[in-house]
Amino acid sequence: MYDHLAVVGATGAVGTLILRILEERNVPFKTIKFLASKRSAGNKLLFKGKEYIIEDTTPAAFDGVQLVIASTPDDTARDFVPEARKRVDLIIDESGYWRMNPEVPLVIPEVNPDAALKHKGLISSPNCSTTQLVVAVKPLHDYGKVKRIVVSTYQAVSGAGLVGTRDLLGGAKSYLENDGVDKYEYENFGAPIAFNCLPQIGGVKENGYTSEELKLLYETRKILGDDTIKVCPTAVRVPVANCHSESILVETEKKITADKARELFAAMPGVVVMDDIDKKVYPMPNVCTGRDEVFVGRIREDLSCENGITFWCVSDNLRKGAATNAVQIAELFQK
């Protein structure tokens, strides 16, 4: 691990969780500093019982820093990363801006840790919905070679940041207080999220797919190193506070039975199998929140194709989907 750390975006939803995970996992360092926007600069932050002053994210703030873990909007990452790279040894970036750059490794430590070792000063952490998908699919791909993935996501409002959570709580309160009429003025969502599902996450891109859906396609291919994998994604925002859920169908070249899939999942680092439908045991957001694993259940052979396995997958999008994955990348370089 590098001795001198900086966390960029330290006051955001993922940034504050990065601090908690650094403490939980007792990540070693000699010095640490916390950077954020001008609006937050000068405020105080408590970490490991010590008080720190938040600094503005300027080029000079990276002087003397070796390792940066950053969680910022894409445009912020676009602006600060080039100057920071001149001053630091390694940046681990949570934003989406650099992920598909061919010179930037896109890393999930359980899946492709070797890619991190080829970095040129910058490593990207994948989108939260991609992360849990690829962790779950990896053992199936290694055993039977994945040909096609059909994935529908059920994404929690925490994926939209603190404002997403405010919108869910405010909308639900308004709906209940006004006899089913939601009078809340939403800050983030273009339609009511309380007691509703929104089948659009991100901007509209080619062929009617959204930016969130195309991340599932292109990031999956990059991480698994296989551009032949076909992916049909649908991303939906649901009125759940935290944890993304996904319904996943995987078609493989080699037949994988349900029992074999359970065996492969159970042997995969970072995956927990919860699969006993008779006892109503399967992953759900309310039991998976606050955990770092990817949970799979409802494992069964697909009825529509010969070599298909379908299953249900849940993971904490703020932890494994973001903060934990970034810290785990940093741990790959721990001395």
Keywords:
single chain, 335 residues, alpha/beta, Dihydrodipicolinate Reductase, domain 2, 2 domains, 6-stranded mixed sheet, 9 helices, globular
Going by CATH, the homologous superfamily of the largest domain would be Dihydrodipicolinate Reductase, domain 2
Helix proportion? 25-40%
Listing every helix as H and every strand as E from the N terminus to the C terminus, the arrangement reads: EHEEEEEHEHEHEHHEEHEHEEH
Number of domains: 2
Q: Please state the structural category.
A: alpha/beta
The backbone outline, from C-alpha atoms, is globular
Strand order of the largest sheet: 5-2-1-6-7-8
Over all CA atoms, what is the radius of gyration?
Answer: 20 Å
CATH topology of the largest domain: Dihydrodipicolinate Reductase, domain 2
> How many extended strands?
14
Second-tier CATH architecture of the largest domain: 2-Layer Sandwich
Count of DSSP H/I helices: 9
Main CATH class of the largest domain: Alpha Beta
Runs with pLDDT <50, length 5+?
Answer: none
How does this structure look, described?
The chain has 335 residues and is α/β, with parallel strands linked by helices. It has two domains: 4-126 and 323-331, 3-Layer(aba) Sandwich (Rossmann fold), CATH 3.40.50.720; 130-316, Dihydrodipicolinate Reductase, domain 2 (2-Layer Sandwich), CATH 3.30.360. Helix content is 30%, strand content 23%. The protein contains nine helices and 14 strands. The strands form three sheets. A six-stranded parallel sheet has the order 5-2-1-6-7-8, sandwiched between helices. Strands 10-9-11-14-13-12 form a six-stranded mixed sheet. Strands 3-4 form a two-stranded antiparallel ribbon. Helix 8 links the parallel strand 12 and strand 13. Helix 1 (13-24) crosses helix 9 and helix 4 (128-144) crosses helix 7.
